[in-house]
Each structure stands twice: as structure tokens, then as C-alpha cells.
Amino acid sequence: MERTLISDTPKKVGEPVRLEGWVNTVRDHGKITFLDLRDRTGIVQCVGTALPKVSPESVVEIAGKVTRRPEKLINPNLETGKIEIQIENLKVISPAAELPFDMGQEDLNLDLPILLDYRSLTLRHKKQQAIFKVQAVIIEAFRDALRKKDFIEFQAPSIISAVPEGGAEVFKVDYFDHDAYLSQSPQLYKSLLVGIFERVFSVNQIFRAEPSVTTRHLTEVTSLDAEFGFIDSWKDVIEMEEYVVRYIFSEVEKKCAKELSLFNATLPKLPDQIPLLKLKEAQEIIYKRTGRDVRTEKDLAPEDEREICKWSLEEKGSDLIFISHFVTKKKPFYVYPDPEDPTYAFSVDLLGRGVEWSSGGQRLNDYKTILEHVKEWGLKEKDIELYLQSFRYGVPPLGGFALGAERVTMHILGLKNIREASIFPRDMERIDVRLSTLSEKESS
Ligand code: AMO
User: Fold this and answer.
1) Minimal CA–CA distance to 47: which of 33, 61, 68?
2) N or C: which end of the chain has fewer CB within 10 A?
3) pTM exceeding the 0.85 threshold for the entire prediction
4) pLDDT single digits (tens) 280-329
5) Is 185 in the pocket of ligand 1 (CB under 6 A)?
6) Which domains are assigned to the chain?
7) Residue 443 is among the residues annotated as catalytic for this protein
8) Does the C-beta of 245 come closer than 6 Å to ligand 1?
9) What is the pLDDT of residues 386-417, one digit of tens each?
10) Which residue among the candidates 125, 363, 407, 411 is catalytic per the annotation?
11) Which residues of 73-89 are buried (b: 16+ CB within 10 A; e: fewer)?
């Protein structure tokens, strides 16, 4: 008999079915056993007598009949809550060892290190799965939005020869006899490709050797990068980004109602237009609101980001806000200084619910100015030869942005730690499992 998916069982009352899946929970009431079976489409209650012993999370095959539940036993919280499966035969396909914790609860209630150390198991929980279903929708919506505007997807390399974003947050790779790095950003490649396709995007892993442990930093990030040419100004970049972000929200709203409700999450509030402030204006507001004088600072500290987001929600009814005109010398070499005051650049961050979601802006496209910046920023021309080559032969005025998929997911769902929004998070203390537990194992 063909396999029936759990979501199809309510349509098959009175019919025999063959189901396959995982044992979500087992409740043994002496002779009669209740077993919740889970597959990729949902959960259904199965009932049987004299069943073989079966442990939670085992993979099983159940042959049985779909029956209507008596009125008072209907479970309104379950999509299959009006029916159940009368088990005729249960076969264990792959037994599960004893679980280290109870997986059958609505919430896992585990400390984060445990949740992550047992990732292959904890991801089986429906709330954990929901996070990555939402993330998949976010990423696909990003792609879809840009395809609709004629962007083409490219595959960004992970091994690179120069550090486009500057700074020490880079992993050096032992690359035969040469220096190489794990990509911090596909920045130089996406800009270069504007000289070829006009409009490009990529969904790729980027690597940051973040030396500290925070709730918003990972060492490996899924970056949603877009770049396009023939812009009239940096405002075109903001407009494109706002379109993409709104598109993402509307797809999540359409496709993830169930997942959002598991987290009691509501999509970020947006007015007709996402507010935009220059860094200086934001600092002035923060000073007025808190008395903290950050007006001479070169960037926004985490508490400033939180404060300006609070302002944005209170004063503009927006969970998101664009901040532009960051200090040129604090930004990478490719930023476009504002001709009216070159101390500040046409660079834009998008902040959401208290945290930076993206960076972007207009880029330099004049070859001579790029060379000047390369020198000033202390880069070696030979390390970015391919990028320079592209601009030597003409690239239109361009700009773009990159959203961190984990940050977007985290703040849409209201997760407390970015690690929860990364399916296999990496940080300075973890690759798969905690590195400290590995060295304990080695020495024992
Ligand atoms: P930036 O370095 O700001 O910009 O990175 C873009 C976005 O990527 C995410 N992100 C991170 N998320 C978690 N942990 C990290 N360690 C981390 N680092 C970055 C954030 C951030 O806003 N080339 C530019 C983008 C551009 O101008 O197009 C860049 O890399 O959400």
C-alpha cells in the first residue's frame, strides 16, 4: 500500500492507511497505547492494543484505519484533531536510543548549549523546525523579490585573496604556499559582476572571526547580498532594499502563519515609508532622549541602536529604520563619500527591532578614486586585481546591500539569541558541539 502523509489522513475517514514517521510521544495506559506519529506534514494520534515496545523518536511504520474521534475527544489544537488512527500493525524501522530529555513538550525548555549540542535531535521539535521553515521562506522571498526586478543569482566564492571589509575579523586559510581568507563578504565579486549583468544577488555563507560572544554575532553567517548598477543616487539603494524587505514580510505573513503563532510573533510594524536618519541626526535624538552624549562617536553602539529603534517605533510607528551617512573612514574602502561633506559616506544600515539587519550604500565606480581609496585604506592593489580590472574597463554607478539571514529570522520571530536562528551555528566556542567538550573527550 502506498504511504499516506499525515496531513492527508483527515480526508480518509473509514479507509485503511499506511503511515511512516517518528514517534512524537507514547502514552501507555496498560492495555491501550496512544502514540502521536509525526511526519513532515504534521502529527496524528494513533491508538492500539498489545503494541510492541517503542521508544519516542523511533522511526516506525503504522498500518491502520482512519476513524472519527468521539466529539468530546476532539483536539482543536491539532490539524488532525478530529480523527485518529486505529493501529493494526506497527513496525519499528529504526529504533531511537533513550532520549537525554523529554522531546514531547510544547516547548523544549532547554538551556541554549544543550539545545545546540543535541542539534540533530532538538531540530526534530516542531518549534525548532518552524524557525528554519520561516528562514527558508525569508531566503526564497529575497530571491524572488530580486528576480522580479531582473536580478540574476550568482555563486559567490568562499576562498578569497583579500579582505574587502577590512578589520581583524577574518579567518586565514592555509592555502598551499599563499595567503587566503574565508570570505567576509562577496562584496568585491558582486560589485565586479554589476559590470557584467547590471543586477546581481547571492545567498552565501560569510565568515567573521568574531572574537567575542554576544547574542547577535556568529562566525558563519548566511548573507543575502544584492548589488545593482545605473543608480541615480544612494536613495535608489534604500528604495530597492525597502521593496525587498516588504516582500519578505508579506511572504512570511502568507506562508508562515502557523510558525509565527508558535512564537507569538508579529511581523515588524511598518508605516508607508521606513524612516531614514543620518547618523548625526540619530545621535542628536539619542542625546535628547537619554542625556547620553554620543554626538562625537563614529558609529552607533548597541545601546544606541536599541534607543533609535525605540524612537522609530514610538515616533514613526516603525520597527525598522534606515541610518545613513556613516563616517567614511570607518567604512570599507569602496564606500562613496558624500561630495557635500566627504567625512560622511553614502552608506546605509537598516536597523530592526534594536539591531542592525543590513549594511549597504552607494559604491565608488570611478577607477582613479578607487585607486586612491585603496592606498588610503592600506590595501594592496595586487590582492584585489580582479576587482580593479573590472573598474578599469568601466562599471556604471552602483550600490547594494546585504542582509544577515539569521538576524532577520531572529527578529521576525523574537528569538533571544542569534544562535537559535542558525541551523548549525558557529561561534568562537562552537563548531557543531561546544569545542570545550571536544577537548574534554580527547583528554579522557
Ligand atoms: P556588514 O559587515 O555590515 O556589511 O554585514 C552585513 C550584514 O550581515 C550580518 N552580519 C552578521 N550577522 C551575525 N554575525 C556576524 N558576525 C555578522 N556579520 C555581519 C548583519 C550585517 O548587517 N559588504 C557589506 C554589505 C554591503 O555593503 O552590501 C557587509 O559585509 O546582518
Assistant:
1) 33
2) C
3) yes
4) 999 999 999 999 999 999 999 999 999 999 999 999 999 999 999 999 99
5) yes
6) 6-94 (2.40.50.140), 116-443 (3.30.930.10)
7) no
8) no
9) 999 999 999 999 999 999 999 999 999 999 99
10) 407
11) eeeeeebbbebbbebee
